[in-house]
Write a structure and sequence with these properties.
The complex is a heterodimer.
Chain A lengths: L5 H13 L1 H35 L7 E6 L17 E2 H10 L3 E10 L2 E4 L2 E4 L1 E5 L3 H5 L13 H5 L4 E5 H8 L8 E4 L2 E9 L9 E5 H7 L5 E2 L1 E6 L5 H18 L10 E5 H44 L1 H9 L4 H44 L17 H27 L3 H6 L2
Parallel strand pairs in A: 6-10, 7-9
Antiparallel strand pairs in A: 1-12, 1-13, 2-11, 3-6, 3-12, 4-5, 4-8, 7-10, 8-9
Chain B lengths: L1 E10 L5 E11 L4 E5 L6 H8 L7 E6 L2 E2 L5 H11 E4 L11 H12 L3 H14 L15 H14 L4 E5 L7 H16 L3 E5 L3 H4 L4 E6 L2 E7 L3
Parallel strand pairs in B: 3-8, 3-9, 6-7, 7-8
Antiparallel strand pairs in B: 1-2, 1-4, 4-5, 9-10
The chains are: A alpha+beta, B alpha/beta.
Chain lengths: 423, 225
């Protein structure tokens, strides 16, 4: 059966023309529903993007470990032994866990850094070249470079300082190539870091090997940080953490049940948790959106019931002329689908336009503050992806079918005789 | 063509109404019949059963050799579409379709393409002398014009039988004359014509008058030619 034809569409348009206000009101309900759905979902995404951007450039699969004190005696060692990591553990980790990507030891100090008459106390870390990828440091090419392997091998006295430190010590001058004093030892500035999201008090980096040497630490390190690939769930992360602790305990002769001796922090667990929260928010938002939409659909259903009632006679005539129940059913369903999709599409268009407008306004605002410190954001890039739009479209079509079905069933049951008697 | 064998019909309700009480009737192909009777005599019910718009309780109804009983909605729609043309007192044209589209409607349900059915509809409009009115909507036409469009619509599906329910009930005497002439011509072309009416003058134009009273055929006058 040719179920779709120009006539069918023409008929729908004709009935819509006959009752403009009614069609508009019905359509508005659906438009509004879809509009709300899009705006809500977009805002949810905006919130997510905002919070996600606060994770910044830091690798989201970052793990940090540090030594603490043992709480159990083991193999002749007493309790309360201080655990210090060494370069050896890094090699063991790297060898045992192929999923570990970048790894770096870290040594924390808080020295006096000075240039000519200006000085300040800044947090300083001795790190390895890989740390740039772990921490997400940003050094533009005009600002020099991060520490490299040659710096490490030769234990060079080179330093990377943050923008804040440069501003404090060098005022308007460039610090690149200049020599600063760190606790009276001269270091040459090789890079200015503009990662900036957490540059409130200023910080610097020197090579890990240099730090070990000047602070007399032999091969010890305060902290080991690394990134690890392929851990997508909370469970996988927890499991990985346990394995790492087991290996480290064995290497450092710590009691296998001593959970206090090594400190560990896994950003991925944090990240996964946050993302889970957002998935829940997403679901919630979707639920509200759908509820709003349902209100619109009930409206369409309502109107269709009235429409069918008003057109009883027409359906009766058509039946007498040979319209099958299928013909009638399809024409009503199609009408319902056309109304819902047309108006739903309109609502979708408005919703997306609003999001784009907000996006533009947000970008313009942050554009003005370029170069300044990156602020904590809670809202960024509100948008809906193509998938959402497709789902919304699908929902619209299904909604149209549902809204039309009940009245259509009613129309199909119309007895031609009774219908034609109705005046 | 049409064969009623002991047809009974009761409308259920608190007080069941036995409307048709064992009707026996045979109408041959090409006959021009009127069914008369007071209101409540069962003539509308009979027309509905004839037109497969309503079912009957007991008995047998054969239309063109096909037994019409307990048909599915789709099947009865198909039979109506191919075998029966309807003409109503209140014309029953679809208000938002123009004359041409109204006439073409039965062909739409037969699955004829748009172009073809419009061409055919134009022929039938021409036959009714309404070719120049094809683009007018029902509310722009006179009663006689509307009924002629309805006749064109009834004819377009090439039915075996035309069922007309008080076709002149809403027309003045001059237009009545005109419409009856058209119906006679249609009958002359070989199509069986059954008219339900309570107007003697209309019935007199037909060649057989079946008179119903209280659900039974009171008399059946066949004009001898």
């Amino acid at each position: 059966m040719r179920w779709f034809e120009f006539d069918t569409l023409q008929e729908i348009l004709a009935t819509m023309r006959e009752s403009k206000l009614r069609t508009f009101l019905t359509g508005f309900a659906v438009s509004w529903g879809i509009f709300m759905l899009i705006v809500l979902l977009g805002s949810g995404n905006g919130l997510k993007n905002g919070v996600t951007s606060n994770f910044g450039n830091e690798a989201t699969n970052k793990v940090e470990m540090w030594g603490r004190k043992t709480t159990m005696p083991y193999k002749g060692f007493k309790t309360h032994r201080s655990i210090r990591f060494t370069n050896r553990e890094m090699i063991i980790l790297k060898g045992q866990f192929p999923t570990i990507d970048k790894i770096s030891g870290r040594i924390f100090r808080n020295p006096l850094v000075s240039y000519k008459e200006d000085f300040g106390n800044y947090s300083m870390e001795g790190v390895m070249p890989d740390y740039k990828m772990i921490n997400g440091n940003k050094i533009e090419s005009k600002n020099g470079r991060f520490l490299n392997q040659i710096d490490m091998d030769q234990e060079r006295k080179v330093i990377v300082i943050s923008k804040k430190v440069e501003e404090a010590l060098f005022k308007d001058q460039s610090a690149l190539g200049k020599w600063v004093k760190v606790d009276n030892i001269s270091f040459q500035v090789v890079g200015i870091d503009t990662k900036s999201s957490r540059d409130e008090n200023g910080y610097c980096f020197i090579p890990h090997s240099t730090a070990q040497k000047i602070f007399n630490m032999a091969d010890k390190t305060d902290n080991i940080s690394f990134t690890v690939n392929g851990l997508l769930t909370k469970e996988a992360n927890e499991d990985f953490g346990k394995q790492v602790l087991k290996t480290m305990s064995r290497a450092l002769l710590i009691h296998p049940d001593d959970e206090q001796a090594i400190g560990m922090w896994n950003q991925a667990e944090n990240y996964v948790q946050t993302m889970n929260i957002f998935s829940t928010i997403d679901l919630f938002v979707f639920f509200i959106g759908i509820c709003t939409l349902i209100a619109g659909i009930v409206g369409v259903g309502n109107i269709m019931v009235i429409t069918v009632k008003e057109r009883t006679k027409e359906f009766g005539i058509k039946k007498a002329l040979g319209a099958t129940p299928g013909n009638i059913l399809l024409s009503i369903l199609l009408e319902s689908v056309v109304i819902t999709t047309a108006f739903g599409y309109l609502g979708m268009l408005f919703g997306i336009s609003l999001l784009e407008l907000v996006n533009m306004a947000l970008n313009m605002n942050s554009g003005g503050g370029e170069g300044g410190a990156q602020k904590m954001t809670v809202f960024k890039d509100p948008s809906v992806d193509l998938g959402t739009v497709l789902i919304a479209t699908l929902i619209l079509i299904v909604a149209g079918l549902v809204a039309g079905y009940i009245p259509a069933r009613k129309a199909v049951k119309i007895k031609p005789i009774e219908a034609m008697r109705a005046e | 063509m049409i064969n009623f064998e002991n047809i009974n019909k009761t409308y259920p309700g608190a007080q069941p109404l036995h409307v048709l009480k064992g009707i026996d009737m045979t109408i041959a192909e090409g006959e021009f019949v009127s069914i008369m009777g007071a209101s409540g005599s069962g003539k509308s019910t009979m027309l509905n059963i004839l037109g497969i718009l309503d079912d009957y309780d007991t008995g047998d109804y054969y239309l063109n050799g096909t037994k019409i009983k307990n048909l599915t909605e789709t099947k009865s729609a198909e039979y109506r579409n191919h075998m029966i043309g309807f003409i109503f007192q209140s014309f029953n044209l679809i208000p938002f379709k123009n004359a041409l589209e109204n006439v073409a409607l039965p062909l739409y349900y037969q699955g004829v393409t748009r172009k073809k059915r419009q061409a055919i509809a134009m022929e039938y409009l021409d036959m009714m002398g309404l070719k120049d009115w094809w683009h007018h909507f029902p509310n722009e036409l006179s009663g006689g014009q509307k009924q002629r469009i309805a006749i064109a619509r009834a004819l377009i599906g090439k039915p075996k039988v035309i069922l007309a329910d008080e076709p002149t009930g809403a027309l003045d005497s001059i237009t009545t004359e005109e419409v009856m002439n058209v119906l006679s011509e249609v009958n002359a072309s070989g199509i069986t014509m059954i008219i339900v009416t309570h107007e003697k003058s209309v019935a007199d134009k037909t060649r057989r008058i079946i008179h119903l009273k209280d659900g039974i055929i009171e008399f059946d006058n066949k004009l001898q030619l």
